[in-house]
Specification:
This protein has about 90 residues and is mostly beta strands. The chain has one domain: Roll (SH3 type barrels). The protein has one helix and seven strands; from the N terminus they run H-E-E-E-E-E-E-E.
Length: about 90
């Protein structure tokens, strides 16, 4: 199975020595949050698995399946590096 694009982007942010992980934030679907979206600083990522990422939110580990991720954003460059395609209606 080929590696998904979102997983490649996350691994590059986390492991590439030319990247600074604290420059990035991840927006994901989170029911009950304002606009049903929550933003996580990328430097809280603990692990990147095949279909989800594991990150620290305060004192607990949270699993975020890739299908819930909406955007990966570089705060330093003000650039969206990955965004989920939305259905056109």
């Amino acid at each position: 199975m080929p590696e998904s694009l979102i997983r490649k982007v996350l691994n590059r942010i986390k492991w590439d020595s030319q990247e600074t992980i604290s420059d990035y934030e991840i927006t994901f679907l989170h029911r009950g949050a304002p606009n049903n979206l929550k933003i996580c600083p990328a430097d809280r990522i603990k692990e990147i698995k095949i279909s989800y990422l594991l990150f620290f939110d305060e004192d607990e580990e949270v699993i975020i399946p890739f299908h819930r991720i909406r955007r990966i954003y570089n705060k330093k460059t003000n650039q969206i590096v990955w965004e989920k395609e939305t259905e056109q209606g």
